[in-house]
Amino acid sequence: MTKLMEWLLFAVLFFSIWIALISENVNLHFIKEWKQFVLFLPPVVLFVCGLYAATVVLYRTFTFNNCEQAAIELQEQIEEAKKDLQTKGIVLKCK
């Protein structure tokens, strides 16, 4: 099962339960007491998921590791590729 299918399955289950609760197809005594909360549950869940996603992206951005050795190796490979292309007659314009 792909990640998209997992998210769609969760969304369908969540909204099916939510619609059943707000349309009063499920008769539970606490649903009437918490009607306002249940009504605004999807935007709250969406906000919390967005907040979580933003936090994860920011955390991983701020803790991203610099790979100095890999950067040097990549620059060497680029120079080697340029020299190889020049020997084959291809001229590259450098900015």
Automatic annotation (TrEMBL):
Pathway: Protein modification; protein glycosylation
Lineage: Eukaryota, Metazoa, Ecdysozoa, Arthropoda, Hexapoda
Entry's transmembrane regions: 39-59
Membrane-protein topology: Multi-pass membrane protein
Pfam families in the record: DPM3
Subunit note: Component of the dolichol-phosphate mannose (DPM) synthase complex.
An individual GO BP term: GPI anchor biosynthetic process
Keywords: Endoplasmic reticulum, Membrane, Transmembrane, Transmembrane helix
Subcellular locations according to the entry: Endoplasmic reticulum membrane
GO cellular component: dolichol-phosphate-mannose synthase complex; endoplasmic reticulum membrane
Family label: Belongs to the DPM3 family.
Protein name from the UniProt record: Dolichol-phosphate mannosyltransferase subunit 3
Function: Stabilizer subunit of the dolichol-phosphate mannose (DPM) synthase complex; tethers catalytic subunit to the ER.
